[in-house]
Amino acid sequence: MPTPNEFEISRRNLLVGTVTSVAIGASHGANAQNAASRSHAPAQGMPATAKVSFSVNGEVRALELDTRTTLLDALREHLHLTGTKKGCDHGQCGACTVIVGGQRVNSCLTLAVMHEGDSVTTIEGLGTPEHMHPMQTAFVTHDGFQCGYCTPGQICSAVAVLDEIKAGIPSHVTGDLTIAPQLTNAELRERMSGNICRCGAYSNIAEAITEVAGRPA
Ligand code: FES
Ligand code: FES
């Protein structure tokens, strides 16, 4: 039987071993390696910074950032693209959704330095007031918003959702994995469930997306 002291020591060793394993695993990621190779050792008391360059709405942007900067803060605070909204900053509301390499991403949950060479599209890159993206037009036509705070994230997500369905990517509610998913109401609501609207414009949002998908609402 271990004494209480021996038990304490082995529990501590277990915790240290676990943390070390997680740290080693994380450092093996390609993004982490790339970011590390571009990072600067911080002067005492200063945050570590790293250079990163990625394309935003078709324009290459080079930044030197505190390595803890999220993609959301890089877009809003450093590039002044404030169309992308910060709601919860914890991956729970979808207000910060942008499209990276064709896939939607909660930009509050990913570090900017992990996106070297990536192609990022924000709401500003989808369309302009004079030349709106069809999804933006449909949101206006169907009153798919009230206060509008969630809307940039909803629209970015909706555009990527239609591409996901076109690419045959199944969701949690796809019944038959042997055939391409269809744009049913259940599929749409499941795929958009990460985008919360405090104003409750959900049915109008669903109508807008359905129209763009070319199906009757
Ligand atoms: S701000 Fe990113 S999910 Fe809420
Ligand atoms: S339109 Fe207000 S939160 Fe969605």
Could you characterize what this model shows?
The protein has eight helices and six strands; from the N terminus they run ααβββαβββααααα. α5 crosses α8. The termini are far apart. Mean pLDDT is 86; it is low at 1-9 and 14-29. With 217 residues, it is an alpha+beta fold. Strands 1, 2, 3, 4, 5 and 6 form a six-stranded mixed β-sheet that branches. One FE2/S2 (inorganic) cluster is lined by residues 145-151, 197-199, 201.
Low-confidence stretches: 1-9, 14-29
From N to C, what is the helix and strand string? Answer: HHEEEHEEEHHHHH
Bound ligands: FE2/S2 (inorganic) cluster
Structural class: alpha+beta
Which percent band covers the strand fraction? Answer: 5-15%
What is the end-to-end distance?
A: 69 Å
Shape: globular
Count up the helices: 8
Number of DSSP strand runs:
6
Rg from Cα: 21 Å
Secondary structure: helix percent: 40-55%
Mean pLDDT: 86
Taking the sheet with the most strands, its summary is: 6 strands, mixed
What's the helix and strand layout?
Elements: H1 4-27, H2 30-38, E1 39-40, E2 49-56, E3 59-66, H3 71-78, E4 97-100, E5 103-106, E6 119-121, H4 123-126, H5 134-141, H6 151-166, H7 185-191, H8 202-212
Parallel strand pairs: 2-6
Antiparallel strand pairs: 1-2, 2-3, 4-5, 4-6
The structure holds FE2/S2 (inorganic) cluster (2 copies).
